[in-house]
Amino acid sequence: MTSPKPLDAGSLRGELLAPVGPYAALDVVASTGSTNADLRAAVAEGAADRTVLLAEEQTAGVGRRSRDWHSPKGAGIYVSVLLRPHGVPFSALGSLAIVAGLALMDVTGAIGVDAALKWPNDVLAGPDRAKCAGILAEAASSDEAAVVLGIGLNVARPRVPVPAGAGGLPATSLAELGARTTDRTEIAMLLLAAFADRESHWRDAGGDLTESGQLADFRAHCATIGQTVKVLLPDGRTAGGVAADIDEGGHLLLDQGHGGRRTIFAGDVVHLRPAT
Question: For 124, which of 68, 105, 129, 226 could close a Cys bridge (C-beta 3.0–4.6 Å)?
Answer without folding.
Answer: 129
